[in-house]
Amino acid sequence: MVTFLRKRVVSSAIPLLFVVFGVFCLARLTGDPVNLYLPLSATPEQRAEFAAANGLDQPVLVQLWDYLGQIARLDFGESLRTGQSAAEMVFAAFPATLQLAAVTMLIAVAGAVLIGCAAAYRPNSPADRVCSFLSMTAASIPDFWFAIMGVLVFGVTLGWLPTSGVTGGAEVWVLPIATLLIRPFGVLVQVVRGAMVAALTAPYTRVARSKGASEKRVVFGHALRNAAMPALTVAGDLAIGLVNGAVVVETIFGWPGIGKLMIDSVLQRDFAVLQAAVLLTAVTIFTLNILIDACYALLDARVRQAAPA
Question: Can you give the pTM of this predicted structure?
């Protein structure tokens, strides 16, 4: 198990290095911050002073070397917009994204397991067909369209829910979570249903029934355990997508998470904050991948045995 995880850590760390170099290069393609933060009437001396104060007067390779040195010291610089520490701004925004993603995935997984198991228990029944149709529809709806329609219908027309912000009670969570939830929920219902149909017709479930096992034990004790691998694979990818792709939801609903912070940093050419936000997101995805691999190894001994000694 330890050997397997060590191998996965080393192999997963390589893409992280590409992220470090990629975000540094791509951030500078957004333009020169000097042109944004200084007025058109600024003199060449003022422009040179601003660039020198923020390390923008150095060659790109020198800036890259300084950036790598800062990462090694866990120093991500200061925001051009606010003068605050970039790391503090990112760590202040990231919990909001994690909370949104965690609640969404918890609801999606729990609901998909219950509905997927119920649909698979009687395949091709009217209830199964309704569940399949609704789940495929949910998986096909673009999140930005659903978010806009939710704001229009429930926020503007009916006035039941707030359209943006985080001040208030539980109602401020409804539209952001519903928008993030609809596609993962639809996909997971399809995956759980398909895996459970195969598991419930497998020889080991027939043997369990012949030995007098209750239907509850057959479904949740035998079939669901063996159907968990494909569901875990998809759930892991969806969870990573939620952490990495909450930009649209956070922008539409004014949710103060890492996605909105990235968009603001790109628009304001705030390189330090953008680099810190992308790096923290990449490290989080890296950690989630390792946890998913550990779950694979716990569920299937063949995964552990496949790792070289």
Answer: 0.74
